[in-house]
């Protein structure tokens, strides 16, 4: 590599690091640079969160080190910490590897310059490595501190701490890049890129949960053997190799580092051909279309279709604001699978009606995780003028956003409730009242979220995540939804001690109906006026 190539690579790498750390100096919600006081305050907040996360990992490593290290089980301790740190690094990098490696926003700009694709890939991988290393150190540093406190002779393990962290970060980067490559291959020719991205993300989460559960089960078995003083036969082969490398055996550490470097080189070699194609593939290529007559539809259905298309085109919006619907479907299946256990649990309750009440408000709390209306106004961004210029009233626009929430949330909520009520053999009168309460609560959460969205909009964002996850109104709406469900549930249980269960249900329904009417009235009048003035 000559001098000019090295200089170009350093410049691109500095650019990559500045992009990854831009959130510290630039607000994602406004796109403006923070003031000095704002940078200090945000840096202090971010540093506090980092220390809190490291403290939680320290509380995890402390009892493990107190059990294993005095007994001479250093290799087992490090193997456990390595697997956990690797899981943290892979999980942190996997969800961003596809976008950062293959679909970065400045790919076209870099390709227009005299920069070879291999250098772009190397810079992207370096940025991914830096991110994986950062998240991995959140666990690895507390693990080494615990090792220094409890190990009999910690010098070898402490000397190998930095090299081992660098090697583990390389392994996490390699796995995250492979997962991003799989997603890129799946979405390269997919007609519905957002759907494929959502399915791949959820599939990754499921696989991660299964692997984590299996690993924890095996770890508990090994730790049980260690606590009883039995000979540990689990550390053979790869386990002995990884644990010994972290304990300070230089030969094992060298072999591991060389192996990771060779695997990364092999990945770069394998991607040298298709990388340019994958990073320039865009959804929306030439498709075969069939001409057909347009069907007339009502204005309400047309506006709802617009909201559905927006939801379907944004994986971030779908994953972060509609996960309650998926949780309700999973809960329905889980209740059917564990029907006998559910009936046995309900039979142990002091009152028969208590099972239906707990089930109803469990559905209410899970449905409250859907927050589709809260960021819907802010997601219009600087294109809000298009809605304001259409021949529609502001209330019709707000009603379409309410319809989207109801369409996505209400059917799975009622399905989940119906499955539980059938399994518990609840009388039809109580089942009808429970269904009405869930429906009214879904209307309330939709209206309350839209009230917050209209009252506290944020239009000058640079990324959708700024109004989907970094928006205070989203957290406030979630707390309001859960607080309302909790208060109603406790109120019904307390009131049922003095009056009949049906009367308690009717009282809760009356309160919810009044709250829904007031919220919808505000949206139709003051909320519509606010939307018109935005």
Following the backbone from N to C, one meets helices and strands in this order, namely HHHHHHHHHHHHHHHHHHHHHH
The beta-strand count equals: 0
Distance from first to last alpha carbon: 55 Å
Provide the low-confidence segments as ranges.
283-287
Whole-number radius of gyration? Answer: 27 Å
What gross morphology would you assign?
A: globular
For the residues shown, what is the average pLDDT?
79
How much β-strand is present in the residues?
A: under 5%
Please outline the major beta sheet. Answer: none
3D architecture notes:
This protein is an all-alpha fold and 534 residues long. It has 22 helices and no strands. It has helices at 3-20, 36-68, 74-101, 107-111, 117-150, 155-159, 161-187, 193-227, 238-246, 250-271, 275-280, 299-313, 315-321, 323-337, 339-347, 352-367, 384-389, 394-424, 428-455, 465-468, 472-495, 501-533. Residues 283-287 have low confidence and may be disordered.
